[in-house]
Amino acid sequence: MSEEQKKVTDLRSALEVLSQYDDELIYTDEPVDPIAELSGVYRYVGAHGTVKRPTQIGPAMIFNKVKGYNDMRVLIGLLSSRKRVARLFGTTPENLAFMLKDSVSNPIPPIVIPREKAVCQEVVHLATDPGFDILKILPAPTNTPEDAGPYFTLGMCYAADPETGEHDVTIHRLCVQSKDEISMYFVPGRHLDTFRQKAEAAGKPLPITISIGVDPAIEIGACFEPPTTPLGFDELSIAGSLRNQAVELVDSLTVNARGIANAEVVIEGELVPNYRVREDQNTNTGKAMPEFPGYTGAAQAEVPVIKVKAITHRRHPILQTCIGPSDEHTNMAGIPTEASILQMVERALPGFVQNVHCPSPGTGKYLAVLQVKKRFAADEGRQRQAALLAFAAFSELKHVMLVDEDVDVFDLNDVIWAMTTRYQGDVSTVFIPGVRCHPLDPSSDPAFSPSVRDHGIACKTIFDCTVPYNLKANFHRSEFLEVDVNRFIPGFTKK
C-alpha cells in the first residue's frame, strides 16, 4: 500500500480510501425500499457479473435513506470491480492473486480485545427485549420480488469446532425466517457445516456470530477453500497477513462465540440441533435468491436454523449487501481461487505458470485461464498437467483455458483470439467426465447429459489454446515500433 493512502482496517476506512477517487463511490439520498428496489437500482449502476443484461461495471453505492429505517444506511457493490479491489489492497489488478498467495503462506492469527474497545457493541439489542425483531433493526434486502425472503448476503459467519476449538469463517446464504430466526444454507463440504454436524451429533447448539460490514480483506480471505485452507485453518489469519495487522475479535454478549470487533453489525446466535425449516416458508415462491451463476436457486426443503440471541452494531451503522450474480461475488470467490491455483501449480511446476485469471463470465468458480510459458521442448505437455493441478486445487472448477505468455489473461478478447488461432477442437480439447463440481450449475444434471450421474457432477474440460513448442516460430505476434506516445498525447499511460 502506498504511503499516501490511508491504511484500511475496517469498512469505514475502506470507504475513505474510495472517496479519494472520482469513479469508485457514489451516494444517494433518495429513499429506497430494501425489498427488491435496492438491488433493482444497482443492477444497472454497477453489478456486472452474470447479472441479466443490461448491466455494467460501476461504482459502489451507498443508500443514505432506507424506507422504514431512520439510522441505517446500506452499501452495495464494494468489491464489484477488480480495479476497486486492487485499490483497496494497494496493488494492481494483475497482482492480486500473487498478493493473496503470499498472505496464505504468512498468516497472522486474530486476537481478542476487551468488549469496551469493540465498536461493534456500541448499540445492543437483546432478543429478550420487548418487541425485538430482526427486520425492525436491520433492513435485510431481497434481490428480486420472488426471493424466498430477506437475505443477509455478506455475513461473515464465524464459529468454532466443538471438539478442537479451531475457528473458521465463511459466507453463507442467510434468510430471515422470523423475528429471531435465520435459516442457513450449506453447500456440502463447508467447514462450518462440519462444526454444526459435530455439535448436532452431541445434541448441542453451535454458537455462531454473523459479522456484516467489515474490512474487505476479511471478505476476500473468507472465500479461500480446501486444500489451500484445510479444516482448522482460520481464514481471518489471511486477512491479518494482507493488512499486516491481526484481525480483532470480541467475545459475544449472549453466546460462547466471537465476532469481528470493528464490524458494522454483529448478529449473535446458535445453530439449533435437529431443527429445520423450508427456506421459502413465508413466501412459497419455490425460489431462494439469485446465485452467482446468474440463475435464481431453488428454495431448500430443509435448512438449519440460527436462533438469534442479540444484534449489536456501531452507531450510525452501514449494512453491507451484494447482488448474488454480480462481480462482487466473482472477485470474492475468483481471486482466492487464482491464488490457490498459483500456489498449487508453483509447487509442482516452478516458474511455468505466469498468471491465472478467473473471469467474470466464469463466475469466479467455474472457469480459470492459465497463462503458461513453454521454455524448452520438455515443457510441452506440462500445460495440461498445470490444468489438472488446477482442478485438484479447486474442486468446483469446471473449465480451464490454457494460453501462452503473450496472451493477456485479463483481456477475454485476447483469450478468445488465442482460442481462434491456436486451438483445434479435435486435438486441443481434453474431457474429464463424471467429476464432482458444484450443485448450483444447472447444467450439471442427468437431464442435461447422460455423462452426469447425479446433480452436481460435471464434465470438466481443458481447452488447450497454446502453441505446440516446435511450432512457436510460426506464431509470433506482429511487432510494432516502440515509440514515446507522450510526444503525441501528453500524459498518456500505456495499459
Report on this model:
With 495 residues, this protein is α+β, with helices and mostly antiparallel strands. 23% of the residues lie in helices and 25% in strands. Strands 5, 6, 7, 8, 9, 10, 11, 14 and 17 form a 9-stranded antiparallel sheet that branches. The two termini are 20 Å apart.
Brief digest:
Helix content is 23%, strand content 25%. By secondary structure, the protein is of the alpha+beta class.
Key attributes of the depicted protein:
single chain, 495 residues, alpha+beta, 5-stranded mixed sheet, 12 helices, 23 strands, 23% helix
What is the straight-line distance between the termini? 20 Å
Give the helix tally.
Answer: 12
β-strand number: 23
Strand content: 25-35%
Helix content, binned percent: 10-25%
Oligomer: single chain
Largest sheet: 9 strands, antiparallel
Describe the global form: globular
What is the gyration radius calculated from CA atoms? 23 Å
Average pLDDT confidence is 95
Please identify the structural class as seen in this structure.
alpha+beta
Low-confidence stretches: none
Topology of this protein?
Layout: H1 11-18, E1 25-28, H2 37-47, E2 60-63, E3 73-76, H3 82-89, H4 96-105, E4 111-112, E5 123-126, H5 134-137, E6 151-152, E7 155-160, E8 167-171, E9 173-178, E10 181-185, H6 191-201, E11 206-212, H7 216-221, H8 236-243, E12 248-251, E13 258-260, E14 265-277, E15 287-290, E16 296-298, E17 303-313, E18 318-321, H9 327-348, E19 353-357, E20 367-372, H10 382-393, E21 399-404, H11 412-421, H12 425-428, E22 429-436, E23 457-464
Helix pairs in contact: 4-8, 4-9, 9-10
